[in-house]
């Protein structure tokens, strides 16, 4: 066996697998969404957009993402800075911060359900402190705002860890000399963070933001656990059309919408946080 | 140095602890404690509910202390379908683990050891999978699986979960192999090993812990996945799919015990692979 053929041989299984189970299904989604009895049709899309829940689901998903991702970015930056500064107990703190990384969104939803449900811990605390007379129904359908808040808190709790891990490894490869040089020139801590850490962290910030934003568009199990179908989101509607309404084509149309906003977000972050080739470490 | 201004957001700066002022030190420690509590308290409360009797779980107000009654756990374990769901979850996760390593490790090795035309295209394909909402793959695959008889089987779902886990397996194994000097392999070749022997005798023992870590990560991805599992399984539900399907109808103590069943393996696994968390992002741990 020649050395020329070997890498291709090693890659073949993975490539074949991705072709069959990654590229082909995406073609199929488009076929499902656009194919009608007489060829190309937009009727599935029209059916999707004319349903009253579509606008709400799209708006809810976008608003949730717009609130969750920036908060997570700030929190993840703080956590990563803390971990980077730590000398003792670094691995313990890092493990605790990283715990949610291993948890499913469904588990996170159930965990925060224990806190927000009517006989839950938040109500126990509020009544115990005498702040409210009797338990509040946070997650009822007349309390969309509270369901919204609960979903946001649960998502921030669960998914900040992934950003933090990416940022910690990004901070680890910033050369110490840059900080020393900045210090020599009298830069304050905040200035060093602004002028050294943030610019040098661009590639990691890009990865973290892309991963998290796409995942935020896919929010599903947390919403189902905390609000049932009271709070429509895109992924939840996809599931509803696939199962309750048994229309695969409309479900595929929803999938394409999620795909479209994911690609749009990825392109925006790639452009915003572009790293010039010569500036790479 | 101690005259440095102390702001509330002092933890924002990656500097050694030593040159923070006393007040800065206090804010720093307080921030760590707060953040740890933010992560740990909700988990603790889930465990409290799981270790309480069903009556206590629905009761009000709650004390926040577990009564160590096994009522909820027993109810969960004896609930119809739970045993099967646990078994299915385990089966799918193990299959995902095996597939993603068998497919990913050779690719990671090829990427780390060879320069060849098309390398960048493959890397792009792998990175691209991260930019797509992968659980949606389940929708068209549901149709394909019905045609091929893979619908509602552990194998079918494991294949979809492998798409989720494969990019990570490739990236982790890539950084593992890249961390081992090629000279070690070359030394083995000069001593008469062929490429395969050198790999098995020299490289494999060195990367095995990392491979195990990436396998564990694949397991966790599959164990936690909700959407594809709910779409692709009907009779053979995994634990996540089972819980989602029954969320509306199941009593609270079933949900909480189910949540704990989801959380516990993940906690152990993340602890087991904590050293490799950083290798997963293709960047060496420093």
Provide an overview of this structure.
The complex is a heterodimer of chains A (281) and B (286). Chain A has 281 residues and is mainly α. Chain A has helices at residues 6-34, 43-50, 52-85, 90-98, 105-116, 121-128, 144-172, 176-184, 189-200, 202-217, 221-227, 234-243, 248-272, and strands at 35-36, 39-40. Chain A has one domain: MetI-like fold (Orthogonal Bundle), CATH 1.10.3720. In chain A, 74% of the residues lie in helices and 1% in strands. Chain A has a two-stranded antiparallel sheet. Chain B is mostly helical. Chain B has two domains: 10-72, no CATH class; 76-281, MetI-like fold, CATH 1.10.3720.10. Chain B has helices at residues 22-50, 54-58, 71-78, 82-113, 119-130, 138-148, 154-178, 182-190, 195-224, 227-232, 239-246, 252-272. In chain B, helix 4 runs parallel beside helix 7. The model of chain B is unreliable at 1-11 and 282-286 (pLDDT under 50). Chains A and B meet through helix 1, helix 3, helix 4, helix 5 and helix 6 of A and helix 1, helix 4, helix 5, helix 6 and helix 7 of B.
CATH homology superfamily of chain A = MetI-like
User: How many distinct helices of chain B?
Assistant: 12
Report the strand count of chain B: 0
Give the structural class of chain B. mainly alpha
Strand content of chain A: under 5%
Major sheet characteristics of chain B: none
Q: How many domain modules of chain A?
A: 1
Please report the distance between the alpha carbons of the first and last residues of chain B: 27 Å
Shape category of chain B: globular
Q: How far from one another are the termini of chain A?
A: 37 Å
How would you name the CATH homologous superfamily of the largest domain in chain B? MetI-like
Regarding quaternary structure, what we see is heterodimer
| CATH topology grouping of the largest domain in chain B | MetI-like fold
Largest beta-sheet details of chain A: 2 strands, antiparallel
* Tally of distinct domains of chain B: 2
Side-by-side strand order of the widest sheet of chain A: 1-2
Strand content of chain B: under 5%
Overall form of chain A: globular
Radius of gyration of chain B: 24 Å
Count of beta strands of chain A: 2
Mean pLDDT of chain B: 81
């Amino acid at each position: 066996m020649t050395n020329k053929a070997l890498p291709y041989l090693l890659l073949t299984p993975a490539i074949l697998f991705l072709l069959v189970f990654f590229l082909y299904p995406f073609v199929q989604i488009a076929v499902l969404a656009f194919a009608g009895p007489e060829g190309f049709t937009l009727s599935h899309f029209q059916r999707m957009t004319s349903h009253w829940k579509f606008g709400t689901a799209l708006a809810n998903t976008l608003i949730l993402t717009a609130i969750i991702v920036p908060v997570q970015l700030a929190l993840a930056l703080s956590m990563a800075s803390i971990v980077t500064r730590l000398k003792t107990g670094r691995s313990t703190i890092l493990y605790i911060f990283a715990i949610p990384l291993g948890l499913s969104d469904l588990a996170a939803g159930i965990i925060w359900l224990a806190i927000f449900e009517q006989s839950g811990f938040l109500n126990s605390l509020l009544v115990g402190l005498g702040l409210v007379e009797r338990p509040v129904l946070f997650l009822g359908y007349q309390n969309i705002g509270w369901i919204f808040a609960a979903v946001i808190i649960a998502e921030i709790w669960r998914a900040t860890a992934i950003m933090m891990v990416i940022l910690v490894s990004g901070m680890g490869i910033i050369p110490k000399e840059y900080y020393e040089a900045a210090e020599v020139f009298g830069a304050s801590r905040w200035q060093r963070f602004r002028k050294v850490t943030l610019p040098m962290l661009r590639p990691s910030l890009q990865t973290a933001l892309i991963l998290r934003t796409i995942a935020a568009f896919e929010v599903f199990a947390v919403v189902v656990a905390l609000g049932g179908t009271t709070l429509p989101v895109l992924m939840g509607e996809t599931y509803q059309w696939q199962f309750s309404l048994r229309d695969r084509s409309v479900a595929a149309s929803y999938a394409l919408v999620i795909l479209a906003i994911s690609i749009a977000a990825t392109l925006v972050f790639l452009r915003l946080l572009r790293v010039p080739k010569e500036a790479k470490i | 140095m101690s005259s440095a201004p102390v702001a509330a957001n002092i933890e924002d700066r990656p500097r050694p602890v030593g040159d923070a002022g006393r007040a800065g030190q206090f804010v720093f420690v307080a921030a760590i404690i707060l953040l740890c509590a933010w992560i740990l308290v909700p988990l603790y409360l889930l465990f409290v509910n799981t270790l309480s009797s069903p009556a206590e779980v629905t009761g009000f107000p709650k004390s926040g202390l577990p009564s160590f009654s096994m009522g909820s756990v027993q109810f969960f374990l004896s609930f119809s379908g739970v045993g099967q769901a646990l078994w299915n979850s385990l089966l799918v996760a193990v299959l995902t683990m095996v597939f993603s390593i068998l497919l990913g490790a050779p690719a990671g090795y090829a990427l780390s050891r060879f320069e060849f035309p098309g390398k960048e295209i493959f890397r792009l394909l792998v990175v691209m999978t991260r930019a797509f909402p992968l659980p949606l793959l389940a929708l068209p695959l549901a149709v394909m699986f019905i045609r091929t008889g893979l619908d509602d089987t552990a194998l079918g779902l494991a294949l979809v979960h492998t798409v989720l886990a494969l990019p990570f397996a490739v990236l982790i194994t890539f950084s593992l192999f890249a961390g081992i000097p090629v000279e070690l392999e070359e030394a083995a070749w000069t001593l008469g090993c062929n490429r395969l022997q050198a790999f098995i005798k020299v490289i494999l023992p060195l990367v095995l812990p990392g491979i195990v870590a990436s396998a564990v990560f694949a397991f966790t991805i599959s164990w936690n996945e909700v959407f594809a599992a709910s779409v692709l399984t009907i009779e053979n539900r995994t634990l996540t799919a089972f819980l989602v399907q029954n969320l509306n109808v199941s009593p609270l103590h079933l949900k909480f015990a189910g949540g704990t069943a989801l959380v516990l393996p993940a906690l152990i696994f993340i602890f087991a692979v904590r050293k490799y968390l950083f290798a997963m992002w293709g960047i060496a741990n420093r």
